[in-house]
Amino acid sequence: MKILVIHRQKEVIGQIATVLAPVEPVIRFYDSGLDGLLAARIETVDLIVCGTDLPVITGFELVRSLRNSSINKTCPVIFLADELNHKTTYLSHILGAAATLRLNDEQLEEVLHTQRSRYEAKRPSHLQSIFPGYSLN
After folding, report:
1. Residue 90 CA, distance from chain mean position
2. Which of 7, 21, 47, 52 has its CA 20 to 30 A from that of 33?
3. Which residues, 6 or more positions from 128, have their beta carbon under 8 angstroms from its beta carbon?
């Protein structure tokens, strides 16, 4: 599972890596919104965890740009905000975020488990990876 983490605090990676350890995540970390945007435009990822207050461009601007023109248009996004208010929840809803949480929220683990389950459900089975046209239907 490829995860793009764009946040000012590198400690966020530890929380994500711990919860998603069973699916052996490959985590790419950027602390600037612009660097994260450039990375997300050239590499397909399975999940984006993004802060809302980033240097250069905000997390909301980053996701809006990805939704308009990127190979990650439909990638699930989890926003991590310093504080949740009407503006934050409204913008995340409009951008189709999977979740918007406060930093250090206990719900982060629950949301990551949900995203891991979705990833595992759409991952091809062992037989499908050996025989590309194989289907149980």
Report:
1. 18
2. 21
3. 134, 135
Tokens read off for 36: 């994260």
**SS3 per-residue string spanning 61-114:** HHHHHHHHCCCCCCCCEEEEECCCCHHHHHHHHHCCCCEEEECCCCHHHHHHHH
User: Dihedrals φ, ψ of 99, to 5°?
Assistant: -165, 155
**Cα 42 from chain centre:** 15
- The mean pLDDT values, 10 residues at a time, for the chain of 137 residues are 90 85 89 92 91 90 89 90 88 90 74 81 61 56
Tokens (6 digits) for 1: 């599972």
